[in-house]
Design a protein that fits this description.
By secondary structure, the chain is of the alpha+beta class. It has helices at 4-33, 37-50, 96-104, 156-247, 251-277, 290-305, 324-341, 389-394, 412-422, 451-457; strands at residues 56-62, 68-76, 90-92, 108-110, 128-136, 139-148, 285-288, 309-312, 320-323, 349-358, 373-382, 426-432, 436-444. It has a six-stranded antiparallel sheet, sandwiched between helices. The protein has a five-stranded mixed sheet with strand order 8-10-11-13-12, covered by helices on one side. It has a two-stranded antiparallel sheet with strand order 7-9. The structure holds adenosine-5'-triphosphate and magnesium ion (MG). Adenosine-5'-triphosphate (ATP) is lined by residues 333, 337-338, 341, 382, 384-385, 387, 391, 395, 400-403, 408-414, 437.
């Protein structure tokens, strides 16, 4: 005959075990949705106390060096502050019961704390304790610890339950660590990819600018050589025409001679522009103030062309050391272009000046790279037809013109570019079809002690 008492205790035991199992199953399902380590620790502490019937639960996390534990979650009577710990306890590995469990990587049950030499008494007296390590392989991630006011409160069943909780928590911690590593790797990849793309675009633009600069340089060399030789021929032609003038008489002959001399003079102007483009002009640099040059030009354009050019001069503009006649020529060319681009003859253009401190010159915006330093900017802005990107690529080419025969040779801007480069500066162009154009010329500021010669020159 079977013993009815033992049957009752067996079935009660089964019921407790089944309930624990159900709780652990629910626990495993909940773990899947926990998004971060912090939530995980607090969830586990709360569950251990709330559902599994422990009086309290404290969780400690191990540091990467495996030398110390830091309290990261606590639930139960010992923590009246809810989900926060005011002064987290730090326990070195090997110290106290938790430190010893972390070091030995083995769980421990202490039946009577007062008899245990490792017990560090707390404000709340406890008599028994259970502590289980959280670990992946041999690496300790932390410990789960629970105390009880009675002696011998923990047995095999509690050990098994808490070890299962610790195993599930450790597995989830490993997953979260891996997810964190993957997300870091992914972010690194995204950053590296966008840096690479930016670099590619940058390099492509620089290559285009560089090949453009090289193209202009080689045209410059060629036209420089040509202009130089042609200049010599022109000198001979003009000289011979001068000699003939004394020998000839009769109005027709003299008129033919005059036509020849005029053509030679026009040729000389062309040659000067080509020499300027190839940076082979004979320059006479002197310290001058671009505001004064611009004022003169505004006056001249009003007087000679009836054009109003507004001037916005910078106060205390840094003086520059350049060929004054050439800079006047250059400015005249830019004003003439602005005038030609204006839809009506009454449209104004603007000249402005500015002190500019260049820290990194950007090849994308300027015709050539500028050394970091002080520059005076001379800008001419109009509100005329503007230019397409394609035209902007070609405007500095010698003989590029969109003007009708007789109205433009296409050497004005070539000369501007050559002169500015020969003077150590750079040109910036901004233009948009229908919205006008701005040409900015940057000239290096003269050294500070050049002021004296400037005042002498003015
Ligand atoms: N401010 C501007 N607005 C619109 N287009 C311009 C402007 N400046 C220059 N351009 C374009 O650039 C071309 C080249 O200008 P550039 O000054 O070199 O030669 P040009 O004016 O045609 O002839 P010239 O040798 O008489 O100066 C012009 O034909 C015009 O198409
Ligand atoms: Mg022109």
């Amino acid at each position: 005959m079977s013993d009815p008492l033992s049957e009752i205790s067996v079935s009660r035991f089964d019921a407790v075990e089944a309930r624990t199992l159900r709780i652990l199953n629910g626990f495993a399902i909940d773990l899947m949705a926990i998004p971060n380590v912090d939530d995980l620790f607090w969830y586990v502490a709360q569950k251990v106390v709330g559902k599994l019937g422990f009086v309290d639960c404290v969780i400690y996390q191990a540091n990467a060096d495996q030398t110390a534990l830091t309290q990261v979650a606590a639930w139960g009577e010992k923590n009246p502050f809810g989900r926060s710990i005011l002064n987290p306890l730090v326990i070195p590995f090997g110290q106290g019961i938790t430190g010893t469990v972390a070091q030995k990587r083995e769980p421990a049950i202490i039946d009577d704390l007062l008899k245990d030499q490792n017990y560090i008494p707390d404000t709340e007296p406890a008599r028994s304790e259970i502590c289980v390590p959280l670990k992946i392989g041999d690496r300790v991630l932390g410990v789960i610890d629970s105390e009880h006011p009675n002696i011998g409160a923990f047995g095999e069943a509690e050990l098994e339950t808490l070890t299962t909780v610790a195993a599930m928590t450790s597995a989830k911690l490993a997953l979260l660590e891996e997810a964190e590593r993957s997300s870091r790797r992914y972010n690194d990849l995204v950053v590296a990819h966008s840096e690479l793309s930016a670099e590619k675009v940058n390099r492509k633009e620089l290559e285009i600018r560089l090949s453009e600069a090289r193209r202009l340089e080689s045209i410059g060399r060629l036209s420089g050589q040509f202009a130089h030789d042609f200049n010599n021929l022109l000198t001979v032609i003009s000289g011979n025409l001068e000699l003939l003038e004394g020998e000839m008489s009769g109005p027709d002959a003299l008129a033919f001679l005059q036509d020849g001399k005029d053509a030679a003079a026009r040729g000389a102007i062309l040659i000067q522009s080509m020499l300027a483009f190839s940076q082979k002009s004979l320059l006479n640099p002197q310290v001058c103030n671009l505001n004064a040059v611009a004022e003169d030009l505004c006056r001249r354009s009003k007087r000679d062309l009836g054009l109003t050019v507004e001037l916005f001069p910078a106060a205390e503009l840094w003086p520059v050391c350049i060929d004054r006649d050439m800079v006047e020529n250059v400015l005249w060319n830019l004003i003439a272009n602005a005038h030609d681009a204006a839809p009506s003859a009454t449209d104004n253009s603007l000249i402005s000046t500015e002190n500019v401190l260049i820290e990194h010159s950007n090849l994308r915006e300027l015709s050539s790279k500028l050394e970091p330093g002080r520059y005076a900017r001379l800008g001419v802005q109009d509100f005329g037809t503007g230019m397409s990107d394609q035209d902007v690529q070609r405007i500095f080419d010698p003989f590029f013109t969109t003007k009708t025969v007789g109205n433009g040779v296409g050497l004005g801007l070539s000369m501007v570019l050559g002169f500015v480069h020969q003077s150590g500066g750079a040109v910036g162009v901004k233009s948009c079809p229908g919205q006008g154009s701005t040409f900015d010329l940057y000239f290096p500021a003269a050294p500070a002690n050049a002021h004296t010669s400037l005042t002498n020159n003015l």
